[in-house]
Amino acid sequence: MTAAAAHGRKADEVKSAARVLEVLELLGQDGARLSLAEMASAMSVPKSSLHAILRTMEARRWVDLDPSGTRYSLGLKALLTGTAYLEGDDVASLAGPVLDLLAEETGEAVHLGRLDGTDVVYLAKRESRHALRMFSAVGRRLPAHATALGKAVLCQYDAAQVQRRLSWPLERLTPDTVTDPDELLQQLAEARLRGWALDDGENSVDIRCVAVPLGPTSSGGDALSCSAPKSRMDDARLEEVADAVTEAAHSLRTLLKRIGQH
Questions:
Q1: Which residues pair with 122 in a beta bridge?
Q2: pLDDT tens digit string along 206-220?
Q3: Phi first, then psi: what are they for 143, rounded to 5°?
Q4: How high does pLDDT run on average in the chain?
């Protein structure tokens, strides 16, 4: 195996550019603040060469140093670039009013998510009006198999495609996370039939979430969701929320179709 392959890089990548991207990806994991030694170890690169890269990235505001001068985090330029991505994305830019109405109607947290590899990434969110709420943030990544958003997207694929898209064995996040392949495929089949997917405490204990895929109008990888504690989401409420999310997804699809016609 080549050195590039060992570190997840393609053979035709420019090494210095790949290392810059690896720094951004590493620091982008859950708001990481890492020392030079920790980053060099995680990336398997010499501290001397990594330090030179970090100095350049700091000068251009892609990374920041903490007051002690020992730990790095993402810089302001990373935020500005991420914001520009969302502003330039048709789905994310059109979803705002739809999410506002859905949040107002349900009173619960609502999200727009996108499948990225084996994970779902939150692109937009609106908070619940209640004091007791789930934690989420734009840019957060979660395993697709353990989320309603991920299952809503995955249910659009056949069993063989799902097998290829996920990383096996599946990670267990809570006692209720489905990790058995046959059970997951059964869940996806049920979601496909009824038009919405369910996460029943599989990502966060005591949180229920309903999600509906946006389908081909958004390249097939996006979905809308609504989440709430189980104390506010019994089976009767679950059906009401599913109807609301389904209607919101239909509204966003209609907006996307109009854009596509121009």
A1: 113
A2: 999 999 999 988 788
A3: -60, 130
A4: 91
How far apart, in Å, are the Cα atoms of 64 and each of 18, 43, 212? 19, 18, 38
What is the spatial distance between Cα 115 and Cα 90, in angstroms, rounded to a whole number? 16
Q: Which residue has the tokens 């100095």?
A: 55
**Pseudo-torsion of CA 249, 226, 115, 90, nearest 10°?**
40
Closest CA to 91 of 241, 225, 249: 249
**How far are the Cα atoms of 81, 174, 199 from residue 232, in angstroms, in the given order?**
37, 20, 15
Give the residue ranges of DSSP H helices in 107-229: 148-154, 159-165, 181-194
Give yes or no for a cis peptide into 169 (omega within 30° of 0).
Answer: yes
Compute the distance between CA of residue 40 and CA of residue 47 in angstroms, rounded to an integer: 6
Report the C-alpha gap between 159 and 254 in whole angstroms.
29
For the chain, residues with pLDDT lower than 70 are 1-12, 132-134, 261-262
Contact residues for 127 (Cβ-Cβ < 8 A; gap 6+): 103, 109, 133
Distances in Å between the Cα of 144 and the Cα atoms of 46, 111, 226 are 34, 14, 16
Q: Is 25 exposed, middle or buried (0-12, 13-18, 19+ CB in 10 A)?
A: exposed
Per-residue DSSP letters for 145-178?
GGSHHHHHHHTTS-HHHHHHHSPSSPP--STT--
What does the pLDDT look like over 90-111, one tens digit per residue? 999 999 999 999 999 999 999 9
Q: Which amino acid is at 236?
A: A
* pLDDT for 185: 97
Q: What DSSP character marks residue 77? A: H
